[in-house]
């Protein structure tokens, strides 16, 4: 199998880490808890990609109103809509695929761990159970396995909810439906593989809760209606007097004094 040959180095690394964490290694954990610890180590290695994912989500949320305007403007022309969105991504340095980088990076680990568990290197008498209920080398369809699959499905739904926060409606529905559609395939996997994926989902949920608490919400524009009173506008400042303007004429001094009325002199009558 070509994929198996390509992933052989990664398979050897995971096997060595499990031996180091396991009951015969330095740490001395049980095999089940070694898989949980392995999951935490993988997610710590992927922290730089996770940081890029968080920044990408912040950038997408910040530009969500403009993107919705583009989608609304070119709603009838899907090809033009995609071209304008790609142009908008380049102009604003947005990488929509960055939110999927941690998931893509974990896929080879998932396949390599499947190959490790297929020929698990444990000694006779080793404790392979987790919480006394699940044997990590058994199929998830046996015993209490379906309960673990149900917990996996719930954690996957919660993880997909946080991962699809910036996706459109169609992509979000697809991400929420896929965990349910994968159950017929997941139930035939080894319990250790389901345990790994459930642990990484819980990590993603915790990461999403922390990100939502720390990430500021984008400001939403104020909704106005016909009943909304108009905004008060500040009065315009008084204009400064122009330097070259002629001064107003001063009131004349005669206008403030009472007007004198001249009386006509009576003519003297001649004496008789």
Largest sheet entry: 2 strands, antiparallel
Number of helices: 12
Strand order of the largest sheet: 1-2
Q: Quote the distance from N terminus to C terminus.
A: 162 Å
Detail the poorly predicted runs.
218-228, 239-243
Envelope shape: elongated
Q: What is the total number of structural domains?
A: 1
Radius of gyration over C-alpha positions, nearest whole angstrom: 39 Å
Number of strands: 2
Mean pLDDT: 76
Overall helicity: 55-70%
Structural class: mainly alpha
Please state roughly what percent of the residues sit in beta strands, choosing from under 5%, 5-15%, 15-25%, 25-35%, 35-45% or over 45%.
under 5%
Write down the secondary-structure element order. HHHHHHHEEHHHHH
Task: Describe the protein's architecture and organization.
By secondary structure, the chain is mostly helical. It has one domain (2-214). Helix content is 57%, strand content 1%. The protein is built from twelve helices and two strands, in the order H-H-H-H-H-H-H-E-E-H-H-H-H-H. Strands 1-2 form a two-stranded antiparallel ribbon. A hairpin with a 3-residue loop joins strand 1 (129-130) and strand 2. Helix 5 runs antiparallel to helix 6, helix 7 packs antiparallel against helix 11 and helix 8 packs parallel to helix 11 (191-214). The model is unreliable at 218-228 and 239-243 (pLDDT under 50).
């Amino acid at each position: 199998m070509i994929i198996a040959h390509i992933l052989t180095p990664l398979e050897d690394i995971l096997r060595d880490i499990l031996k180091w964490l396991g009951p015969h290694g330095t740490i001395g954990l049980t095999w089940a808890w070694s898989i949980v610890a392995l999951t935490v180590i993988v997610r710590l290695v992927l922290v730089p990609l996770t940081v890029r994912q968080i920044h990408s989500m912040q950038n997408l949320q910040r530009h969500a109103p403009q993107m919705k305007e583009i989608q609304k403007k070119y709603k009838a022309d899907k090809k033009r809509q995609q071209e304008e969105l790609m142009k908008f991504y380049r102009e604003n340095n947005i990488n929509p695929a960055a939110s999927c980088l941690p998931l893509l990076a974990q896929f080879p680990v998932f396949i390599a761990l499947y190959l490790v568990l297929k020929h698990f290197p444990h000694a006779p008498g080793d404790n392979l159970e987790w919480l006394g209920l699940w044997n990590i080398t058994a199929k998830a369809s046996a015993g209490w396995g379906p309960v673990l699959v149900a917990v996996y499905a719930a954690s996957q739904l919660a993880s997909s909810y946080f991962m699809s926060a910036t996706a459109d409606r169609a992509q979000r529905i697809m991400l929420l439906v896929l965990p349910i559609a994968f159950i017929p395939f997941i139930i035939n996997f080894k319990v250790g593989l389901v345990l790994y994926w459930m642990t990484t989902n819980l990590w993603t949920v915790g990461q999403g809760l922390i990100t939502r608490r720390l990430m500021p919400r984008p400001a939403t524009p104020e909704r106005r209606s016909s009943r909304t009173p108009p905004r008060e506008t500040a009065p315009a400042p008084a204009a400064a007097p122009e330097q070259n303007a002629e001064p107003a004429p001063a009131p004349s001094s005669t206008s403030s004094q009472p007007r004198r009325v001249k009386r006509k002199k009576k003519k003297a009558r001649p004496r008789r």
